[in-house]
Predict the structure.
Amino acid sequence: MRLRQEARLAGGAWLAFSTATALLIWLATGGASRLSAQEPAPEAAPAAAEAPADPAAAPAATAEEPAQAEGAAPTPGEEATAPPAPENMLQWAIRASGPIGVFLVFLSVYFTALVIRLFIEYRVTEAVPPPLVEKLEAAIRDKKFQEAYDLCRDNDSFLARLVRTGIANLPNGRAEAKEAMAVTSAEIVTELEMKISYLATIGTLGPMIGLVGTVWGMIESFREIATAAGAQPRPDKVAAGISTALFITLEGVSLSVPAIFFFAFFRNRVAAMSIEANRVADRTITSLVTAAKTASKPSA
């Protein structure tokens, strides 16, 4: 039942993450600009003007047309300049983000790789492998206690580390064995939480990096206004600084939100792994003590 709940939760997390990623990619590739480009253009004005009411004016107008056409012809030194092609959203974001945006891209790649790795490693089936549980139960049932210890010694899962610690401390008493297992469990949980702490660090750094970009973009915009020296500041320069501030802020927050979500998600997984491993380990040690007492009783 727990595995099904974790599978549904992981599936929902991946669905939300994939949907958000697809939306950002669509916006980055100019999806919004394509939608605006599909709007109908206003109707063109009629090409031909109405004929003049006075018939005598028509010949004069036709006589002046060649002169006007000759006067409207461009001079040899003049060249027609076409307007530059508009940038899509992705090109604009890359240009506006600058080196801070490049750093955020590398941080996003590391974050994605870390999340994939944690999804593979942080599973209850990895902490408590079902084949190991079956082999331990069979060894204890057959009273092969050394084989049970060897199984845990050759395995590095959460459960194996707890069971081999408990077996090693059983000569000092069952209470000592349980205390040693509790200490080992706390150490393992600390090791697991150290790995997911990087997610919390990324979640904290994202808004801070976005704030740096915001301040930098505002400085660039106000520098353009301050150095205009009484003249009209260039609107494109002012807008470039503002776009830098907004893009870097968006990128930092977009990295921080999933990082905080996955930090809480994997912290709950660590708790579930710890509870299950301690439960199975305590049951295994209890079964081993009972089997050892049964084996030590003389047969009637």
Summary: Residues 70 and 76 are 13 Å apart (CA to CA).
